[in-house]
Design brief:
rod-shaped; membrane; 40 residues; transmembrane helix
Length: 40
């Protein structure tokens, strides 16, 4: 990952935050689904 992205750093930061949030939501969803199925 190149660090010297100065001219579009804000756009990449927003996209990175969005992707990170989506990944976190998917991980929480799969963890809850897995615990539900393991509970049965």
């Amino acid at each position: 990952m190149p660090i010297r992205i100065r001219w579009k750093s804000k756009e990449y930061f927003g996209i990175g935050l969005l992707l990170l949030g989506m990944c976190g939501m998917f991980q929480l969803f799969f963890i809850f689904v897995g615990q539900y199925f393991l509970g049965i």
